[in-house]
Every structure is written in structure tokens, then in C-alpha cells.
Amino acid sequence: MILRLLIAIIIIALAFFLIRRLRQHKQIKTKQVSQFEETVSCKECGLRLPKPEAIEKDDEFYCCQEHAKK
Question: Which residues lie closer than 8 Å to 51 by C-beta, 6 or more apart?
């Protein structure tokens, strides 16, 4: 009787830890995917940078104001 109870407790504990680990793994995976941003190249020098940081002028992207002025 006590042996069955111990086995049941061990099985429940293992299931709990496995489910918890799978949930954490999914959260880590979704965070990694969302970190990537679209990148663009500077028309002048070819530097690749995230699109939100680029300067857009006449449908072209630049890395700094100096390159956008040329």
C-alpha cells in the first residue's frame, strides 16, 4: 500500500516537472523568434542595420544623415 502511494507520488511529480519544463521551453522559443527584426542595407556603404534604425529617403535606406544627404 505504501509502495503504491510512493510510486504514484513519484509519477505525479515527474509529470509536473516535465510539463513545467515544456512550458518554459516554449516561452524561450517564442522570445527568441520575436527578437529578430527586418534588416535593410545602406545604399551608400552597404551596412546592414535594423529597419527601424535606418533613415529612409526616396524609398532608399541609409545608416546615417551624411549618407542620406549625398
Answer: 37, 38, 39, 40, 61
Give Cα 56 to chain centroid, integer Å: 25
Phi/psi of residue 2, nearest 5 degrees: -65, -35
pLDDT, position 5: 93
Query: How many CB atoms within 10 Å of residue 63?
Result: 20
- Give every residue of the chain whose pLDDT is below 50, as ranges: none
Query: What is the chain's percent helix, strand, coil content, to nearest 5?
Result: 60, 15, 25
Question: Mapping DSSP to helix (H, G, I), strand (E, B) and coil, where does residue 36 land?
Answer: coil
Q: Which three cell numbers stand for residue 17?
A: 516537472
pLDDT of residue 13: 96
